[in-house]
Design brief:
Elements: H1 4-23, H2 27-49, E1 51-52, H3 54-61, H4 65-73, E2 88-89, H5 116-126
Antiparallel strand pairs: 1-2
Helix pairs in contact: 1-2, 3-4
Length: about 130
Amino acid sequence: MIDRTSVEALPAIWRRRAKMLRRYGAETPATALERCADELEATLVEHDETTFSLVEAARESGYSADHLGRLVRDGKIPNAGRSGAPRIARRHLPRKAHAPAETRLADKPRPRDLSNAQIVQSIIEKGLE
C-alpha cells in the first residue's frame, strides 16, 4: 500500500524537478511536471473533501453509523451535510485501528455462526472440547 504522506509530497518534489529542468532550458518537461503537480494536488483535495452518509462513513472508517452519528451530534466531527441528514468528509473520518489478521476475532467463525453440519464435522475431526 502506498503511504499517503509520500503521495502528498510528490507535488513539491515535481516542482523542484521542474525548477531544475528550467535551469537547463527544458521548459516543456518543466511545464508538464508542474501541471502534473497541480492535478495531483487538486485530486488529493477532492479526495479529502468527498463526503459520506453515516452508513457509507461506517464502512469506510470501521466505526458504526450510530457511533459516527453521535460524534457528529456532539460536535466532535463536523457535519458536512445538514441537520437530519448528516454527512462526514473523508478528511474528518476517524479510522479504527485493526488488529493483525491472524489475531482478529471477527475473522474466526463463532460457534453460533456455524451450521449444524459444520459443528458435527468439527466434533468428528477434533472431538468434544
